[in-house]
């Protein structure tokens, strides 16, 4: 194929994906697609007619308007494409089948026990995927692949989990390769924070926001940064690890090799341990803080201070205007939101340009599985 033909094919695929990506978020008319993509109406009609012929798109009844021609909205056919999602954390492996609009068709949960061999977890997860697909033979034919979301850091380029804290048995596991041995579908991976960031942009509260950071706070500190509508990644396909920003240059040594990392102080187990283990969980701290207990309020204020230090560094580097929190930190979230709003405004370089928004991640039912399955949709629609 000559260069001109290759370029024409690339442009065709690019425009097709652009249209599909827009329609994966909402139904739009041809005129609206032309406005948002910058393509001519005739070009939009050629592409959409082709996709309608393949039954990838559906055309709905025209919406009546007071004047002018009534537009007929287009949408993706929910029966055409789906993906399986595997969301792995330190307690369980959540598995499900998801259509392109983020609707879960079936879900299952596999518990993970301390020191359980990795191969046993993967064998069980693969068996559950096969079981779900047997229950949905029509969906199996339209399966684009399997998305795997795991604790970070990860190397997307090699499909490998690197060295997440409190997850030592999974260190350096080539999870994509291992799952390919067990399942015959394409495997796509991401870390949990990145997956949740993209999920919030496609299905959640950040649909209208193209620049934000998702901060996942539980047994570790994970982060996903969306810049200009795209997930930020560096070498080896790795994402920024805000949990390993130094907040105390003479602080505790971290397993990553750095000193005084945010994660050493703000990851919830580390925070609770520093306060003598007086509270068994973050939820217990927040319940007590809501009742006005002084020690619980001190823990809340300390955590807000740690997170504000990390958030400030990111805001000053990337100039984002919204921070989305996810994970265990969402328990009684208005208290944390209030504490952060008190600490953040005076610290960032953007303070004179506009307020920094702090909000909770979308946590609708099965959001974790949907975020994992969406890794596949993103690979197909946004690449």
TrEMBL record:
* Biological processes annotated in GO: D-xylose metabolic process
* Organism, as annotated: Diplocloster agilis
Q: Which UniProt keywords apply?
A: Carbohydrate metabolism, Xylose metabolism
| PANTHER family per record | BIFUNCTIONAL UDP-N-ACETYLGLUCOSAMINE 2-EPIMERASE_N-ACETYLMANNOSAMINE KINASE, ROK (REPRESSOR, ORF, KINASE) FAMILY
* Protein name as catalogued: ROK family protein
- Asked if Zinc is a keyword of the record, the answer is no
Task: Give the superkingdom in one word.
Answer: Bacteria
What role does it play? Transcriptional repressor of xylose-utilizing enzymes.
**Its family?**
Belongs to the ROK (NagC/XylR) family.
Query: Which InterPro entries does UniProt cross-reference here?
Result: ATPase_NBD (IPR043129), ROK (IPR000600), ROK_cs (IPR049874), WH-like_DNA-bd_sf (IPR036388), WH_DNA-bd_sf (IPR036390)
List the top taxonomic levels of the source.
Bacteria, Bacillati, Bacillota, Clostridia, Lachnospirales
Keyword field contains Transmembrane: no
Pfam families associated with the record: ROK
């Amino acid at each position: 194929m000559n260069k001109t033909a290759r370029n024409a094919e690339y442009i065709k695929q690019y425009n097709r994906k652009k249209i599909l990506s827009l329609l994966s978020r909402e139904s739009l008319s041809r005129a609206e697609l032309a406005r948002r993509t910058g393509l001519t109406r005739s070009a939009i009609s050629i592409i959409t007619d082709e996709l309608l012929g393949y039954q990838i798109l559906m055309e709905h009844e025209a919406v009546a308007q007071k004047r002018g021609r009534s537009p007929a909205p287009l949408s993706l056919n929910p029966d055409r494409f789906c993906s399986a999602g595997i969301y792995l954390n330190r307690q369980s492996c959540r598995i499900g089948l998801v259509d392109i609009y983020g609707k879960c068709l079936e879900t299952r949960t596999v518990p993970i026990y301390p020191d359980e061999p990795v191969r046993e977890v993967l064998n069980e997860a693969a068996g559950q995927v096969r079981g779900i697909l047997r229950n949905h033979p029509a969906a199996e034919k339209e399966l684009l692949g399997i998305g795997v979301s795991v604790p970070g850091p990860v190397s997307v380029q090699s499909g490998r989990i690197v060295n997440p804290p409190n997850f030592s048995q999974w260190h350096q596991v080539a999870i994509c390769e291992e799952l390919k041995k067990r399942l015959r579908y394409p495997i796509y991976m991401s870390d949990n924070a990145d997956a949740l960031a993209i999920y919030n942009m496609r299905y959640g509260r950040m649909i209208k926001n193209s620049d934000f950071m998702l901060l996942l706070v539980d047994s570790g500190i994970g982060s996903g940064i969306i810049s200009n509508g795209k997930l930020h990644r560096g070498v080896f396909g790795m994402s920024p690890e805000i949990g390993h920003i130094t907040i105390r240059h003479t602080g505790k040594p971290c397993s990553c090799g750095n000193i005084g990392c945010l994660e050493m102080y703000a990851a919830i187990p580390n925070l609770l341990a520093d306060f003598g283990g007086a509270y068994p969980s973050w939820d217990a701290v927040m319940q007590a803080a809501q009742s006005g207990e002084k020690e619980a309020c001190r823990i809340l204020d300390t955590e807000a201070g740690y997170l504000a230090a990390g958030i400030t560094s990111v805001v000053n580097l990337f100039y984002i205007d919204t921070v989305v929190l996810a994970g265990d930190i969402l328990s009684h979230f208005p208290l944390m939101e209030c504490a952060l709003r008190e600490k953040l405004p005076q610290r960032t370089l953007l303070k004179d340009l506009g307020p920094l928004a702090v909000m909770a991640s979308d946590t609708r039912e099965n959001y974790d599985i949907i975020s994992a399955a969406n890794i596949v949709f993103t690979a197909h629609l946004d690449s």
